[in-house]
Every structure is written in structure tokens, then in C-alpha cells.
């Protein structure tokens, strides 16, 4: 089998379901003050695709999402989103990108309800200073229905379990009516059973709402069965392809080191099991 290479790899299956590329990195590099964060990234993400981003701790996975959000223009090369240069994204473009950041523990006494948390997702769409109306409240309610949390609408956010809070944060992003949904380690800090429930929810939203999903995960085994393609990062983009193409010891060892273990069932065991 040919070695997948980012410069020449395109969506491998379900091509007929995908539209044109929404996100296009071309030899893009991104710098932090202390040095490079990502180097020479060439990657296209198609409309309607589910892409999983994997790689060890500190490999630039979160930086890739920040770039797509328009928060980090490339120091070299280009990044185009919706056919706009990322640094020229307008408010209406930004509103089309939903973002679920890495989970932080919510203060149990913080005075915000589930409904209020989801309504924050409408602010980016209507503008910070415009008052929300009935339509916005209905959209927030429907977003909670989409994630199975409508019955908790009036509950304090801090009183919910970690998995329930994560569903609310996904609903907040959905309330924007996004075309692209970015998720950064959406299963961190929740128990294993709930992790699978959250991932099944994300897969259902991808299918039902035809969202373009870019999901960062340190848990290769959790993301591999769901993502249509995987992108393997460690400052550079080492490979892009289907799970079958990427989850090979010879490819993974380039990024994780020789201690990587793969089993016949396709499970991957990595000594480095941290997240960005």
C-alpha cells in the first residue's frame, strides 16, 4: 500500500457525499513567539467531511483548530476558509464555525442556566449588542433537543455531570447553525461510557445535520471508527488517510516512537497518552 502523503491525499471514500473543499491549507506554517507551532501544512477538508486529528501531546492539534477559527494567520503559505483568507474572515463567516473548546470544570455555584449557556452561542450570530428574541430562544431549545438535554434547560449548568455539560457545550455551538463544527478533545474528563455516548452523538449530528466536523483527540481508538479520515500531526502533517491506512505501526512510529503497539483488532496502544 502506498504511503499516504498529505500533499497528495484527498478524501478517500464517501466522495460523492462531500462538496467542495471548505478549508484549504497550502504549505501553511504557524508561529508562536517561542518557535514554530505547525510547519508546512497542506490539507483540504471537504464540505460534509468528518476528519479526526491525532498526534502526541504538544503536536499542534489545538493550534490547527485555532488557525481554522481565524485566530492565527499563517506566517508562510496560505489558509483559506469558505474561500476567504483566514485573517479576512467576516463575522458571518465566523458564525458558521462552531467551536467546542477543551472542557474546563464549571464552578458548581456559577449562576448560569443551561438555557443561558446555549444562548451564548447565538451572540456570535446576531451580534453581541443585539437583544435575543423568540426565534433565538427556539433555536437554543432545538439545539438542546439535538443533544438530548432539552429537559435540563432551566437547570444550573454547574449542577450537571461532566458528560451532560459537554452536551450543553455542543448545543451552544449548534445554536450558531454552523456549517463547520470544531471539537477539541470533547471526551476529556468524562467517564469511558459517557465518552462513547458523546462520540455517538457527534457522529449522529454529522449525519443528520450534514456538518463538516474536525475533531481533535488523543484517543486514537475512540476516534478511528468514526472519522472518515485521520490526519496525523506532530508539528508537521505526517499522513492523511483512512484509519486503515494511517493506523499502521510503520506510520505511527514516526510520530509516537517505536513503543507504539497495534493489535490485530486495530487497537493502538501509545505510551504517550496525554492531550494538548
Summarize the structure in short.
With 276 residues, the protein is of the alpha/beta class. The protein has helices spanning 61-68, 91-94, 114-126, 134-146, 162-174, 192-209, 220-223, 243-246, 249-256, and strands at 21-32, 35-46, 50-54, 76-81, 84-85, 97-100, 180-184, 212-216, 229-234, 236-241, 261-262, 268-269.
Describe the structure.
The protein has helices at 61-68, 91-94, 114-126, 134-146, 162-174, 192-209, 220-223, 243-246, 249-256, and strands spanning 21-32, 35-46, 50-54, 76-81, 84-85, 97-100, 180-184, 212-216, 229-234, 236-241, 261-262, 268-269. By secondary structure, it is α/β, with parallel strands linked by helices. The protein folds into two domains: 1-92 and 181-199 and 207-276, Rossmann fold, CATH 3.40.50; 97-178, Rossmann fold. Strand 11 (261-262) and strand 12 (268-269) form a beta hairpin. The longest helix is centred in the last third of the chain and has 18 residues, at 192-209.
SSE topology sketch:
Layout: E1 21-32, E2 35-46, E3 50-54, H1 61-68, E4 76-81, E5 84-85, H2 91-94, E6 97-100, H3 114-126, H4 134-146, H5 162-174, E7 180-184, H6 192-209, E8 212-216, H7 220-223, E9 229-234, E10 236-241, H8 243-246, H9 249-256, E11 261-262, E12 268-269
Parallel strand pairs: 3-8, 3-9, 6-7, 7-8
Antiparallel strand pairs: 1-2, 1-4, 4-5, 9-10, 11-12
Helix pairs in contact: 3-4, 3-5, 4-5
Amino acid at each position: 500500500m502506498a504511503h499516504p502523503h498529505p500533499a497528495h491525499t484527498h478524501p478517500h471514500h464517501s466522495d460523492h457525499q462531500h462538496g467542495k473543499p471548505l478549508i484549504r491549507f497550502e504549505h501553511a506554517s504557524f508561529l508562536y513567539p517561542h518557535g514554530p507551532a505547525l510547519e508546512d501544512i497542506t490539507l483540504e477538508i471537504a464540505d460534509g467531511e468528518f476528519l479526526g486529528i491525532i498526534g502526541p501531546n504538544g503536536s499542534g492539534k489545538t493550534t490547527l483548530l485555532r488557525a481554522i477559527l481565524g485566530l492565527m494567520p499563517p506566517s508562510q503559505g496560505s489558509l483559506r476558509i469558505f474561500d476567504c483568507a483566514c485573517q479576512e474572515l467576516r463575522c458571518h463567516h465566523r458564525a458558521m464555525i462552531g467551536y467546542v473548546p477543551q472542557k474546563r470544570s464549571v464552578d458548581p455555584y456559577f449562576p448560569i442556566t443551561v438555557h443561558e449557556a446555549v444562548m451564548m452561542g447565538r451572540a456570535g450570530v446576531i451580534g453581541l449588542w443585539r437583544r435575543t428574541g423568540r426565534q433565538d430562544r427556539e433555536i437554543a431549545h432545538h439545539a438542546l433537543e439535538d443533544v438530548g438535554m432539552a429537559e435540563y434547560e432551566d437547570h444550573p449548568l454547574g449542577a450537571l455531570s461532566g458528560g451532560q455539560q459537554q452536551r450543553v457545550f455542543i448545543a451552544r455551538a449548534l445554536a450558531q447553525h454552523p456549517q463547520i463544527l470544531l471539537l477539541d478533545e470533547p471526551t476529556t474528563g468524562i467517564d469511558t461510557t459517557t465518552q462513547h455516548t458523546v462520540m455517538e452523538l457527534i457522529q449522529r449530528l454529522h449525519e443528520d445535520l450534514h456538518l463538516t466536523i474536525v475533531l481533535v483527540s488523543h484517543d486514537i481508538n475512540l476516534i478511528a471508527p468514526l472519522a472518515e479520515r485521520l490526519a496525523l500531526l506532530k508539528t508537521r502533517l505526517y499522513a492523511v488517510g483512512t484509519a486503515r491506512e494511517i493506523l499502521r505501526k510503520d506510520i505511527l512510529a514516526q510520530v509516537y516512537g517505536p513503543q507504539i503497539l497495534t493489535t490485530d483488532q486495530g487497537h493502538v496502544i501509545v505510551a504517550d497518552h496525554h492531550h494538548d
